[in-house]
Amino acid sequence: MSKIIEALNENLRVIYRKSVDADAALNTLQAKGKGKFDSVFVDGSGFTTRNKRFGPYVEELAGEVAQLVDADPSTLNKELPAIVKKIELLLTTLTQFKKTVS
Question: What domain of life is recorded for the organism (predicted)?
Answer without folding.
Answer: Bacteria
